[in-house]
Structure formats: C-alpha cells, structure tokens
Amino acid sequence: MKTLHLIRHAKSSWENPHLGDLERPLNSRGLRSCPLMAPHILASGCSLKNVYSSPALRARTTIELIAHNLPQQNISWTLCDALYCFHHKELRDWCRNLSDDMDEVVIIGHNPALLNFCNKLTGAHLNNIPTCGYVQLIDPDLQNWNDLAWHTFRLTYFLRPKDFAEK
Question: Could you tell me the pTM of the whole model?
C-alpha cells in the first residue's frame, strides 16, 4: 500500500512585482493558514515523514510553519527542484522514481500540477486544491512506485483552511 499526501503551498504575496516567482513569500492569510492546518493534517493520519518540498519560498515557508506548529513531530524535509513544476505528468514521473521502502510520501507543491495529479490518480473531479489545502491519496494495491498509474488511488481526505477558520 502506498499513500501520497499532497499539500499546496499557502497563499503567497504578490505585493512586490519585482520578485521572481521562486522568491514570492507568504502573505498574511498564508501565514495564518499553516498553523491552522497543521494539527488537522496530522489528525488525518499524515505521518509527516518522507517530506519533499518545492524550492519556492512559499512552499518552503509552508512546511517550515507546519513543522513549527507541530514541534513534537520533529519534521524534516528535502527540497527538490523537480517539485517546482506545474504539470501532473512531471509529478507522476517524479513519484515513479521514489524508493519503494517509503510507503508514504508528502509533497508540498503547486497547482495546477497537484490538482490535476490528484484528479488523474483518483478519477476525482476536484475544481481546486486551495492554498494550504491538503489531500490524502491511498492505493491499497500499489507496492512499487514505478507502477504508479492513473485511477488507482482513493481520495481519503480533502482538507481546506476554510473548513477550520473561525466563523
């Protein structure tokens, strides 16, 4: 059985138009979403082991803030240039090269790649994975990441910051 945990980076700032896309920081909403989502991601069964993040500042800051708000978990992560991508086939190819010793993998990345990857893996029809959104996908029969295929995973969790924000 293999499990994928997909986390879209939190809301980024467009305040400084001179920053390159990789350097955009989180805005105030993004900074609030990470501590809000952290315990719910953990409660969903995400072990926060084998964590890989896009090198974009907004993705790095997202996992840093999630980890900071779950200090008892001792979360570490690896920055991976290949996760700064926007097409689902790039994510598929990246996952197919994962070590089969890892049954669970967490990816912090970007739409539309995460959204389309989720929909292709599960056959779901999500319209959006919002910023700081989380999805959990399970394929109970998959043993080798290289065999990852479309429409074989189940969407078991879909969490959004607005689900937990104070009303």
Answer: 0.96
